């Protein structure tokens, strides 16, 4: 069953539209899955997920996404839902989305404000609720010998990779500073106190050495 659908813009990772809620609103997992969908959209917009089509496994569900013309279509399904049918669903959404003026799409600034497409998502989704309809069986049986050449990854691996990248970015962005040993207040006090004394001792030593050298020259 298709449980969540999200359409987003790749240029900035902005979610534009979403379908009606298909899981119980009292179920905390919905907000969690929605956040994961937004995370996937951001990763695609960053270029961290390069394939134009991918399946991402999480719990007993799968996120399937498809990228076309700078727009990303994401859906969350039960792991038992036919993946081939899930991508047919995304392709149908993409065809409907192409009917809109892209110049208007680029002007959207608020998340999920393209509400005109929410209703279209609900309409298209209803065609994919029952996998045993004649239309859906025909889609599943078409080119049965051809497997979907789509990469599958686990959500935990993608999250861990993002965490490591963020740590690396912080390290590279941190300016190099003087060692705290040399910048400690105690050493500053010692330096202020003993530097003048050290200079006097050095100058006196030089003068004493010079006087001794001159004395030797006159007595030699």
Describe what this molecule looks like in 3D.
The protein is of the alpha+beta class and 220 residues long. It folds into two domains: 2-173, Longin domain (Beta-Lactamase); 179-220. It is built from seven helices and six strands. A six-stranded mixed beta sheet has the order 2-1-5-4-3-6, sandwiched between helices. β1 and β2 (14-18) form a beta hairpin. α2 runs antiparallel to α4 (116-126). The longest helix has 35 residues, at 185-219. It is elongated and about 115 Å long. Keywords: Coiled coil, Membrane, Protein transport, Transmembrane, Transmembrane helix, Transport. It is a single-pass type IV membrane protein. Residues 6-121 form the Longin domain. GO terms for molecular function: SNAP receptor activity. One of its GO terms (biological process) is endoplasmic reticulum to Golgi vesicle-mediated transport.
Quick summary of this structure?
It is built from 7 helices and 6 strands. It has 220 residues and is an alpha+beta fold. The model has no long low-confidence stretch (mean pLDDT 84).
Please write out the topology.
Blueprint (H helix, E strand, L loop, with lengths): L1 E8 L4 E5 L10 H18 L6 E6 L2 E8 L2 E8 L4 H15 L4 H4 L10 H11 L7 H8 L9 E4 H19 L11 H35 L1
Parallel strand pairs: 3-6
Antiparallel strand pairs: 1-2, 1-5, 3-4, 4-5
Helix pairs in contact: 2-4
User: What average pLDDT do the residues reach?
Assistant: 84
Mass-distribution shape: elongated
Tally of distinct domains: 2
CATH homologous superfamily (4th level) name of the largest domain = Longin domain
Biggest sheet: strand arrangement: 2-1-5-4-3-6
Determine Rg (CA atoms, Å): 33 Å
The helix/strand order is: EEHEEEHHHHEHH
Second CATH tier, the architecture of the largest domain: 2-Layer Sandwich
What percentage of the residues does DSSP assign to strands (E)?
15-25%
For the largest beta-sheet, the strand count, sense and barrel status come to: 6 strands, mixed
Number of β-strand runs: 6
CATH class of the largest domain: Alpha Beta
Assign the structural class, choosing from mainly alpha, mainly beta, alpha/beta, alpha+beta, or little secondary structure: alpha+beta
């Amino acid at each position: 069953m298709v449980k969540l659908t999200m359409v987003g813009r790749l240029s900035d990772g902005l979610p534009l539209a979403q379908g009606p809620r298909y899981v119980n609103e009292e179920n905390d997992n919905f907000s969690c899955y929605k956040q994961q969908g937004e995370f996937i959209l951001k990763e695609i917009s960053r270029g961290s997920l390069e394939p134009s089509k991918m399946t991402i496994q999480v719990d007993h569900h799968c996120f399937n996404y498809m990228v076309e013309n700078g727009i990303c279509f994401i859906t969350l399904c039960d792991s038992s839902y036919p993946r081939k049918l899930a991508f047919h669903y995304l392709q149908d959404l993409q065809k409907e989305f192409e009917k809109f003026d892209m110049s208007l799409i680029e002007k959207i600034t608020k998340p999920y404000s393209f509400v005109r497409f929410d209703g279209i998502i609900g309409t298209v989704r209803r065609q994919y609720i029952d996998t045993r309809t004649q239309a859906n069986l025909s889609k599943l049986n078409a080119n049965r010998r051809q497997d979907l050449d789509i990469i599958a990854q686990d959500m935990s691996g993608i999250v861990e990779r993002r965490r490591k990248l963020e740590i690396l970015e912080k390290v590279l962005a941190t300016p190099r500073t003087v060692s705290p040993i040399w910048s400690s207040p105690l050493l500053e006090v010692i330096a202020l106190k003993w530097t003048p004394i050290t200079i006097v001792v050095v100058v006196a030593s030089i003068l004493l050495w010079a006087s001794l050298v001159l004395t030797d020259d006159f007595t030699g």
